[in-house]
Amino acid sequence: MNEQTLSTIRIGKLPAAFICLAFLNFTVGALLGVIMVLEPSAWGQYGSFHAELNPFGWLSMLIYGMTYAVLAIIAGLTLPWPVMGWLQLIVAEAGVVLILGAAQMFSGSLLRYGLEFQALSPLLFMVNILSTVFASRRKQKQVSARDRATDAAQRLANFVNHGTEISSGQMFERFFGRPDFVKATDRVAQKGTELALFCFLAAAVWALMPALHDKANGFYAMPSASVLLSYYGWIAGTVLMVSLHLYPRYAGFRVIKAWQAQIGQILWFVGLVASAFGMVGSPLIMQTGIQTIGVSFTWFALFYLAKMRHACKHTPAPSTIAWWGSWIFALILGVSLVFGLNPLSLPALHLLFLGWITSLVYGVGYTFFPIILGREPTSMRAATIQVWIALVGAVFMSGGFYLLEKDSAMQSVARVLLAVGGCLAAFSFFVFLLLWIFGNKFETHDQISRFDQYSNV
């Protein structure tokens, strides 16, 4: 694999900018989280900052960046108008900054501007993705099927040139191509990703409408239905679909059948729509919808956990531990929602964002980042410790918030758990950052050996 080929599987400047901003936002959010758990009186001052930074500054920006990166890597797709990608980056981060400023100054007018930017960002994202796909289709129509086959063969040959073993090429094809065993579930995941994006658009407009009609200059709470669509539709839905893309590629075999994935997807979307509209006027429909979302999470988690022992045989130890932990958290969240846990309560949100999704980011990162970045963590042993610390921190924080809400006699224990858990979670995140910032770059032959190491073909 020559240096030119190596550069083609590294993310470009736009995805890197989204990802860097995501980590910057999460750094601020994590610091505020530590302040709040150490000093509960600061919750009223910083709670709205934390609630904006984690879902929209951290996870949404990460989703944008990883989507652009994966499109470029898997399909060789790039934006026909790169300026539109940078415009979306500015709009997305401006929305976060303006909403944070509105929370600080208690300004309804500033909030309206922030919500307008936050509504525009997913719209620009959708336009960028569609324009990229349509531009690719137009280009493909101009190339014969034989030429496309030759081009695909040449890409693979470039990767495995100079006598490289075919297992490296197979690993490249598994992660960045579309082997037969993922085609059916990829179609389900693609449809689910589109539904998740539409959920975000609906949530953004839903949040914006009251602000546009509110003539007062006061600050108001976002509609609960909008928050639910953002958290459980856009973010959780995207994570479910991304895992559906990546999990079989990690495993090297089909971990879930297409019809099984479709059932989980239907349950998730039907439950989401029912619970969102039920919040407007029907508590029974709302509760049924929330329970259906819980069934969906439980459905996916059980299928994934059942195959985990065989699927993670060839992933690095930190990734294996993180994947186990993240889907156990997803299972706990799903079962808890079925049995009546409020999806917007602090225990539920920390199970969702900190226990499930952030742990999954670590699991994806330790396997996926070395392949596309040509860089590995400074120490895999330190990475394993980092993941364990993150999981323990998530357990302490989720449990602490549960005790804080349910058992008045356990308030002191709950606060200790929150303080310790918050510090552990923040510390693990900073260690994760440092492991990559000071990570070891490796040369072409070393990168090929990583493909062989992670391959089980």
Automatic annotation (TrEMBL):
Organism of provenance: Fodinisporobacter ferrooxydans
Transmembrane segment boundaries: 16-38, 58-79, 86-107, 119-136, 195-213, 225-247, 259-278, 284-305, 321-341, 353-373, 385-404, 416-438
Keywords associated with the record: Membrane, Transmembrane, Transmembrane helix
Highest taxon listed in the record's lineage: Bacteria
Name of the protein described by the UniProt record: Uncharacterized protein
